[in-house]
Specification:
- By secondary structure, this protein is of the alpha+beta class.
- The chain folds into 2 domains: 1-48; 58-102, no CATH class.
- Helix content is 51%, strand content 13%.
- The chain has 3 helices and 3 strands; from the N terminus they run αβββαα.
- Strand 2 (66-71) and strand 3 (77-78) form a beta hairpin.
Length: 104
């Protein structure tokens, strides 16, 4: 008679159960990662180029070298990273959109 482990499995069955559990754990982790990526992509699609204030679709307006996102719903103006610095630099040379806006 073979020796039994406390779990009720003999050593060979316990070994294969361990291998199966590890494989199942890896499959679950991969499936969870896939679901997280799909969820993030769906959230991005739902909010991409939408006004953070009212949810209306944003329109891109080119001002000199800067593309400004404008909301036709609440008339908000949104800038991407670095765009404000470009507008300020253009205003300092008195030829940019911000200079025109401020009447310089």
């Amino acid at each position: 008679m073979s020796s039994m482990e406390p779990t009720g499995y003999d050593q060979e069955s316990a070994h294969f159960k361990s291998i199966d559990a590890k494989a199942l754990s890896q499959l679950r982790a991969a499936a969870d990662a896939r679901r997280a990526e799909q969820s993030a992509a769906a959230a991005k699609d739902a909010h991409w180029m939408r006004c953070p204030k009212c949810g209306t679709a944003l329109k891109e307006i080119r001002q000199d070298e800067v593309v400004i996102d404008h909301c036709s719903g609440c008339h908000g103006v949104f800038l991407d990273a670095g765009e404000l610095e470009l507008l300020v630099a253009q205003a300092r040379t008195k030829q940019g959109f911000l200079a025109k806006l401020l009447g310089r």
